[in-house]
Structure formats: structure tokens, C-alpha cells
Amino acid sequence: MIWLETPTLTDAGAVDIRRTLAEFGGHATLIRAQDATRAGIDVFHPLDPSIATLSAKLKNAFDPTGILNPGRMYRGM
Predict the structure, then answer these.
(1) Cα(77)–Cα(68) distance, rounded to whole angstroms?
(2) What is the pLDDT of residues 19-36, one digit of tens each?
(3) 65: number of CA atoms within 13 Å, CB side?
């Protein structure tokens, strides 16, 4: 586990960091950021499309009205 503090950029370097870590089988989670930065970045590393579909279906099964933490982990979910 590595904790990394980045300069305040538009995406806090998330795209580059996540791409680099994925090459080594790793992932990155956003822990702390300003509201403007957080609004544009998913908290968790992007899911593989098939896993994202499965996760969305599972969330919908347990929360069909979408009231439990909408968009908290992934935008649109």
C-alpha cells in the first residue's frame, strides 16, 4: 500500500496514476480531495465493463429506487 499526495490538479493525476498502477495489477482509491476535484473523479478505480454491468444490476436489485448513496462509489450507479 502506498499513500500518495498529489498537487491540486483538475483530476489530481488520477488518470495517469490509475493507468500506471493497472499495468502492474494495482488500483487506486481517492481518499481525500477538494469538492471540485472529487466531483470529476470516481472514488474507486474504474471497473472492467462486465463487472460494472454486474455491479449496476446488483445495486438495482437491492436498491431499485436508487436512494442508497447514489453515485457515491461510481457515477451513474
Answers:
(1) 10
(2) 999 999 999 998 888 888
(3) 2
Please check whether residue 62 is in contact with residue 46, taking contact to mean a CB–CB distance below 8 angstroms: no
Domain ranges of the chain: 14-62
The pTM assigned to this predicted structure is 0.68
d(CA 3, CA 35): 20
| Coil/strand/helix, residue 69 | coil
DSSP per residue over 9-61, as a string?
-SSTTHHHHHHHHHHTT---------HHHHHTS-SSPPPPHHHHHHHHHHHHH
